[in-house]
Amino acid sequence: MSGARRKEEHAVSNGAVKASPWSKALRGDSLWEDKDEFLDVIYWFRQIIAIVLGVIWGIVPLKGFVGIAIFCVINAGVLYLYFSSFQRIDEEEYGGTWELTKEGFMTSFALFLVVWVIFYTAIHFD
């Protein structure tokens, strides 16, 4: 167990103020007492990725299946690296790698499509 994790456990057990989910999300190898809190972080990171990639795809301009496929690979890949390498959580506590990989994926996909279409239409429509 890392030193940061032990300090966090000790501080919480002594009645200290609990760290916000976003401060833990940006710090590697955090202790997640509440599983839903970590799933919320995964969900909202996906939404941020969807907006950023939708804007980029609309400006570039990417079209068709290639844009969708690249979005899916980047979205799944970045989140997989986040929870497996950066946070180093035990995926089995959350139902396995597949459950974490698909958490919030469809809503982020829909948001990505909306942002992509809006930006593409606004910039490239003649």
Automatic annotation (TrEMBL):
UniProtKB keywords: Endoplasmic reticulum, Membrane, Transmembrane, Transmembrane helix
GO terms, biological process: mitochondrial respirasome assembly
Lineage: Eukaryota, Metazoa, Chordata, Craniata, Vertebrata
Official protein name in the record: Uncharacterized protein RAB5IF
Location(s), subcellular: Endoplasmic reticulum membrane
GO cellular component term of the entry, any: endoplasmic reticulum membrane
Species assigned in the record: Geotrypetes seraphini
Membrane-spanning intervals of the chain: 41-59, 65-83, 104-123
Membrane-related topology note: Multi-pass membrane protein
The keyword Endoplasmic reticulum is assigned to this record: yes
